[in-house]
């Protein structure tokens, strides 16, 4: 039986597979190697290293949940993790990663739902690092799914293993022209997002309209394509409380433009519960 949550998850996958995937690496800057190097430097600064976890062979495994084209997976391999599981549901993005990582045996692209991937693919207490970056958390169907994922991450991590989450806090509605968010513009492509806050789900979701103008060359007319899907609205206070409940301890936080939040955490060596 298909549930409402399944329909929301399918909508996000469809949005990427049929529309956004072909533009995604371009949207991030266009150079996957440069993106991977930038991500490697950030992860290293946050202490994401194979040697940080405790236990026999602990720390050699890293997991990238919602990997997209895989710049974080490539970064984790560059940091020295022996095995990197790159998990996503988008076939085009996984295909892009597989082609780029063809000579990197450490990186394994896996098509799986992040909601069950850790329980299905990772032995409890064996992962040195789990990262979940970009918009992955806000793509999940419900806040309950987010809380359950935090618990799965805590269970998968080795003692003193590291988790990194990033997401956008969209709980404060934008108004007027502030709802139009320029993403990137080049000679042949322009991308803009428009946010809408419908009252059908109260403050639970925001509707994201992705608008992409393309043209074949500088003399051609512009063509507009647009598609929409929903994202969860997650407040930072709620996220921190759920992480604490899952048994993860905050080590570092960062804030960025557009409500972007990054939280670096660790699983304690002896206890997973904090009060």
Fold and architecture overview:
Helix 4 links the parallel strand 2 and strand 3 (107-111). 34% of the residues lie in helices and 31% in strands. The strands form 2 sheets. A 7-stranded mixed sheet has the order 3-2-1-4-5-11-10, sandwiched between helices. The protein has a 4-stranded antiparallel sheet with strand order 6-7-8-9. The protein folds into 2 domains: 4-169 and 234-267, Rossmann fold; 176-232, N-terminal domain of TfIIb (Single Sheet). Helix 2 (32-45) packs across helix 3, helix 5 (114-121) runs parallel beside helix 7 (143-156) and helix 7 (143-156) packs parallel to helix 8. The protein is an alpha/beta fold and 275 residues long.
Question: How is this fold's topology laid out?
Answer:
Blueprint: H1 4-27, H2 32-45, E1 61-65, H3 71-78, E2 83-88, H4 91-100, E3 107-111, H5 114-121, E4 127-132, H6 136-139, H7 143-156, E5 157-168, E6 180-185, E7 189-196, E8 205-214, E9 223-232, H8 236-246, E10 248-255, E11 260-267
Parallel strand pairs: 1-2, 1-4, 2-3, 4-5
Antiparallel strand pairs: 5-11, 6-7, 7-8, 8-9, 10-11
Helix pairs in contact: 2-3, 5-7, 7-8
Structural class: alpha/beta
Shape category: globular
Number of domains: 2
CATH architecture of the largest domain: 3-Layer(aba) Sandwich
Estimate what percentage of residues fall within beta strands.
25-35%
Number of strands: 11
**Main sheet overview:** 7 strands, mixed
Rounded average pLDDT: 91
Distance between the termini: 39 Å
Radius of gyration: 19 Å
Helix content: 25-40%
Which H/E pattern describes the elements? HHEHEHEHEHHEEEEEHEE
Strand order of the largest sheet: 3-2-1-4-5-11-10
CATH C-level class of the largest domain: Alpha Beta
CATH topology title of the largest domain: Rossmann fold
Q: What's the tally of helices?
A: 8
Indicate the low-confidence ranges by residue numbers: 271-275
CATH homologous group name of the largest domain? Vaccinia Virus protein VP39
